[in-house]
Amino acid sequence: MFITQKAFRALIKQAYTGAGLTVGRREERLLFCGSYWGIEVMREALPNKSLAAVIELTGELPEDGGLFKATKEGGIQYEIPETYWDITAAAEKAKDCYKVSNVMVQSGDKVYRVLQAESEQRETQLINNLFIDAVDPKEMNFGYESYIEGPLAAGTNTHAVYWKNEACVMAAFLMRKEDMKENELVEFLKGIDLEE
């Protein structure tokens, strides 16, 4: 899995103590979701430390085909498997490449990174910098993984970006720029090639 242990643990803990950590299993793939992110990974590519961190919070994993949401306050609530977010299928539709710029925007206590589409329109998006820091090729299990694609999106009017490889997919929702006072700055950046 190309996601750092530190980032994975932070994401699952934040979800578990907040709106809930969704955990699912479909054959050899495990799903972990918070309110603004999702990770789908082959069980064999998931480090044992990551699996242990999930079990430490939830106490269990679902059976094959099962799905539950776990919260610190409410325990575990099993859900209908049809609600399973197929992150891998969604990532397959993501063909538009974004580049990660060096431009960061702070809004309140959060730091966002500006992503810029590699298309002529140079559409800009904001993503929590946590996700940029989470992706690390050194974390890959080279028995199952050999590359990382991303960030990718399904069009420039998208709500999420994806990183993916043979064994793992991570989805992260983008910040709604119109909700930020820095929106004018981010829109202005469309006119600049941020790679120069």
Please, could you describe this protein's structure?
The longest helix has 13 residues, at 5-17. The protein is 21% helix and 34% strand. It is globular. The protein contains 5 helices and 11 strands. It folds into 2 domains: 5-90, no CATH class; 91-191, no CATH class. An 11-stranded antiparallel beta sheet has the order 5-4-1-2-3-11-10-9-6-7-8. Strand 2 and strand 3 form a beta hairpin. It has 196 residues and is of the alpha+beta class. This is DUF4367 domain-containing protein.
- CA-atom Rg in angstroms: 17 Å
> Poorly predicted ranges (pLDDT <50, ≥5 residues)?
none
- SSE pattern, N- to C-terminal: HEEEHEEHEEEHEEEH
The main sheet orders its strands as: 5-4-1-2-3-11-10-9-6-7-8
Domain count, please report it: 2
Ends apart, CA distance between termini:
31 Å
Please state the average pLDDT score: 89
Number of strands: 11
Number of helical stretches of at least 4 residues: 5
Helix content: 10-25%
Strand content: 25-35%
Task: Characterize the biggest β-sheet.
Answer: 11 strands, antiparallel
Short description, anyone?
The protein has 196 residues and is of the alpha+beta class. The protein has five helices and eleven strands, in the order H-E-E-E-H-E-E-H-E-E-E-H-E-E-E-H. The protein has an eleven-stranded antiparallel β-sheet with strand order 5-4-1-2-3-11-10-9-6-7-8.
Please specify the SSE layout and strand pairing.
Layout: H1 5-17, E1 21-26, E2 29-33, E3 37-42, H2 48-58, E4 67-71, E5 75-78, H3 87-92, E6 96-107, E7 110-117, E8 124-128, H4 129-134, E9 149-153, E10 160-164, E11 168-173, H5 183-188
Antiparallel strand pairs: 1-2, 1-4, 2-3, 3-11, 4-5, 6-7, 6-9, 7-8, 9-10, 10-11
Helix pairs in contact: 1-2
Organism: Blautia parvula
Protein name: DUF4367 domain-containing protein
